[in-house]
Amino acid sequence: MVQKAKILLVDDRPENLLALEAILSALDQTLVRASSGEEALKALLTDDFAVILLDVQMPGMDGFETAAHIKRRERTRDIPIIFLTAINHGPHHTFRGYAAGAVDYISKPFDPWVLRAKVSVFVELYMKNCKLREQAALLRLQLEGDGSGPDHDKEPAGLLAELSARLAAVEEQAEALSKQLDDESADAAAVATAAHLERKLTGLRRALDALEPGAGSGPATLPS
C-alpha cells in the first residue's frame, strides 16, 4: 500500500482551512491543519511534509517569520512553501515572500484548479524522492551485509536484477514527470526539484551498474 503524502495547511482562519481542504481533497493525500505559525512549527518537528501552504497574514508569528524558522531547520529547509495572501501586495511584498524561501506566491481569491495543480506537482516530486530513498536504503543494507532484510536469502545477481527493475520504474516515472513540467512551463522551483531528483537517480543507477559482474572492484558511491 502506497503511503500518502502529508500537506501542511497553515491559516489562522478556520473557514480558510476548510476551503483549502475542499480544494485539495481530490488529491487524496493527508491534509494537516495548523492555525498559527507556532502550531505549524510544532507539526514539522515530528512529521514529514510534501509541501506547505502558508498564509502570510497571521496574528503573532506571521507567514514570513514562520517560513524563516522553517528554512533555518535542517530537517525542514527543503520543504516547498507556497505563500497565500489576501492583501494587495506590490513587487517589494512579493520579493519578501520569495526571499523568505517561498517557491510560489498566490493571491486570494485564487483559482482552485491552479492551486490544486501546483500542489500536485510537489506531491508527485515528494513521492518520487521517497521511492528513491527506499531503493538507496535497501541497496545500502545489502552492501553492508545486513542479513535482517526481507531479501537476505536471495542470490546477489537476483537481488541486483530486482533492484535494477525497481529503479527503472522510478526512472520512467521521473522522466514522464520532467516532460510534463516542460510541457506545462511549470514553476522554476518545481523544475529544479525534478532535476535534482534525476541527478540522484543517475547516481543510484551508476552505483548499481558498478556492482554488476565484470564492472570492476572499486567501491560504489550511493546518493545521499
Automatic annotation (TrEMBL):
* Keyword set, alphabetical order: Coiled coil, Phosphoprotein
Annotated coiled-coil positions are 160-187
User: InterPro entries of this UniProt entry?
Assistant: Bact_response_regulator, CheY-like_superfamily, Sig_transdc_resp-reg_receiver
Would I find Coiled coil among this entry's keywords?
yes
- Record-annotated membrane-spanning stretches: none
4-aspartylphosphate: which positions carry it?
55
* Response regulatory domain boundaries: 6-123
Check the record and name the PANTHER family matching this protein.
Answer: RESPONSE REGULATORY DOMAIN-CONTAINING PROTEIN, STRESS RESPONSE REGULATOR PROTEIN 1
What is the protein's given name? Two-component system response regulator
- What species is given as this protein's source? Streptomyces pulveraceus
